[in-house]
Design a protein that fits this description.
241 residues; six-stranded parallel beta sheet; 50% helix
Length: 241
Amino acid sequence: MPIRIGFDVDGVVADFAAGYRAVEQRLFGGRPGRADEPESEDRAQEHRETRLREAVDRPGETPAESHQPHEMRRRRDLIWKEIKQTRDFWETLAPTEVDGVRRIHQLMLRHRWEIFFITQRPTTAGDTVQRQTQRWLVEQGFDFPSVLVVSGSRGVVSSALRLSYHVDDNPQHCVDVRADSATRPLLIVPDSDEVAMRSARTLGIGVTPTLSSCLDILDKASAATSQPALLERLAALIGWQ
């Protein structure tokens, strides 16, 4: 059976954060809300560590948002309302890395991978989320992309698709994959975030700082398929159990 790999879309191949900030700027101009100001590295690290810990403590649950100030929630809701009213919004995003999607396509052809792009994007005006995402991926250099718009546990999806690997930037998704399937998850997390990296490794989740480094790992893992000792060393280096 060929190697099957799932790629989350937003935060992995598509830069949703930049698209969100662009909408925020358009709506609120130069008046950033306190909750939407750029985080310091220390604060960002604390936030990622908290997400990972919550994912472990409450698998399958979405962290409560009741603690958020009313103004923060109102601002966020207005941004999302604008996104959903923007025709074919998902086609407007920039890639996280130039030629990142094209490289996935090249490696797919080289190693005969089967690739699935998996997303939970909400519906917007215009075409369906699936078709918007497919057109965007084709524009980025991936012909005939398989796009799955899903809800619920990524672990269940990974198990149903019999994925060998799943790449994500969301700790909760990686915990679900680790718990509910035989798939090896790869979490994209900045290499400066040592706490989140250690926490993920403790759970048997592989960590990598960028999409490029993730593809380097998958390239090596595919080449080492027939060399168990080499694959075992690679797994130990990345954090897989």
